[in-house]
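Weekly sync notes, structure subgroup
Attendees: PM, AL, DS (notes)

Item 1: joint prediction request from the bench team. They want all two components modeled as one assembly rather than separately. Inputs as received:
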Amino acid sequence: MANHSIVFDKVTKRFPKADKPSVNEVSLQIEEGSFVTILGASGCGKTTLLKMVNRIYEPTSGRIFVEGEDVATVPVTQLRRKIGYVIQQVGLFPHMTIEENIATVPRILGWDNKQIDERIDELLELVHLPPKDFRKRYPRQLSGGQQQRVGLARAMAGNPAIMLMDEPFGAIDAITRASLQDELIQIQRRLHKTILFVTHDIEEALKLGDKIVIMNNGEIQQYDTPFHIITQPANAFVSRLVHSEDVLKRLSVMKAESVMTEIEGTVHPNEIRVSKEENCKTILMHILKSEHDSVIVEDGNQTPVGRVTLAHLKIHEALSQSLSAS
Amino acid sequence: MLDYLLKYYDQILIQFLQHLVLTVSTLVLALLFALPVGFLLSRVKWLSVPVLSVLGIIYAIPSLALFAMLIPLVGLGVKPAIIALVAYSQLILVRNVMVGFQSVDASIIEAGKGMGLSPAQLFWKIEWPLALPVILGGVRIAATSTIGIATIAAWINAGGLGKILFEGLYQNSIPKIVWGTVFVSLLAIAANQLLLWLEKRSALRARGELS
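Output from the run, pasted for the record:
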C-alpha cells in the first residue's frame, strides 16, 4: 500500500431513509501523485465517495486509508488539515480578505507570520492572481473564476499532498473553465499532488484525468486511463457514456508524445509547434488550418523532439478504433 | 412646561437612568439565555417549532397581567420587572439568533470544516461574525420593545420613566405626561440608532465591504 495515497476498501454509504446505498461496496486505489477524475451523472454517488475521504460523510461500512492510515482513527480536524478541499460553491469567507482566507490553515498549523506571508504570495502567483492587486481584496470583489482560483490557493495553503475537488469548475463559464483546467494540469505536473476530482463533464474528466473512475448507481463501472476508457469501454454503460464511435473524442485522449515520430528532414519555420502534452484533436485542428501536413512537438524547453503528421493521426486513429471494436 | 423640567430634572434624570439600567440588564440577561438557545435551535431544527411556540405564547400575555402574576411569586420591585422583560424579549432574540446562524451559507461552513477548522474555530472565526448582523437586528428590536414595556414596570415599583408617566395620569399633570413621553421616546430612539449603527457596521464587515 506504500505508493497508494488513497485506498477505499469495500466502502458503503447508505443515507438514512434512502432505499438503496449511495455508494455500494466500492474498492479503489489511488496512486500517489496521480490525477484521478470521478465521472458520473448526478446521484451516482461520486460526490459521496469523495466526501468520505475527508469525513464530511462517514461511511456506513468499509474502510478508507489515506497515506496508509485508516481515516476513522485519525482526529478529523487533523486529517482535514492535510487534505486540500475545493468545492463548486468555493465557500470563501466573505468577511476576510483574500490573504486572510489563504492564511487560514497555515495559521491553525502555527506557521510564523513571515512564512505565511511568503506562502500567500507564492500561491497567488501560482494561480495567476498578482499578489499586490489581490491580497487585500475581499471575495465579493472577484469574479467567479478568480474566486475559484483563490479557493484553489486556499486549499493548497497548508501544502497538502492530497486534493479533493468537487466539481470545482462547474459554475464557471466555458472559457475561464478551460484555462483553469489547463492551469490545474500544470500545477499538478509541477507539484505532484494526488488529486481526486469529481465532475459530470465527460470532456473535463478525459482532459484532466490520468485515470478516470466511472460511476453509476453507487458502483464503479470502470477505472482506467482515458485512452482505455475510450477504446475499451468495460460495459455498455461506459460505452454509451463516452460515445466511443466519436473520432474526435478518441483523438482528444491521445497525447502528442505517444503519437509523434522522429523529425526527418528540415523543420519548416512556419510549421506549428505544440507541447508534448497536447492532445491529437487540437493537433488535427492545427494541421487543418496550416499549410503543412504536420506539426513539430517540443518539450518544456522549447526544443523540438518529434513530429506528428496527418498520416500518423490516421494510423493511430484506425488502431484505436480497431482496439475499441475488439 | 419647562419650569417642571428645571425644577425636577434630578428626579427625571434618576428615572431615566433607572430605565436605562432596567433595559440594559434585561438585554444582557436575555442574551445569556437566547444566544445558546438560538444557536441550539439552528442546529436541531425540530426543536424550533415547539420552543418558538412557547415563546410566542409568553409574548402574547399582556404585560400588566404578567407583572401581576409575578407579584405573589417574587414580590414587587426590579426583580419581577426584569423577569418579565427577559421573558418578553426571548421570542425576538431567540428567533433572530437562530435565523442568524441559519443564514450563514452552508458552502462556507463546509469549506471551513473541510479545511480542518475545529467546531470552536468555525464558530468564532466564521459563524459568529457572519450571524452577527441578524443577531444585532434582534437586539435592536428587543431593546426598543423592552424600553416600551419597562414603562409599565413602574406599576410594580420597578422605577424608571414609567413612574412619572403613571403619576401624570393619576394627577392629570400634563408636564409629567409630556416629559415622561419625551424621555422614553428619546431613550428608545437613541437605543435604536446606536444598535442600528452597530448592525450596519457588522453587516458591512460580514460582506467584506468595511475598509
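Discussion: The domain at 4-243 of chain A is CATH 3.40.50.300 (Rossmann fold).
Action: AL to compare against the crosslinking data before next sync.
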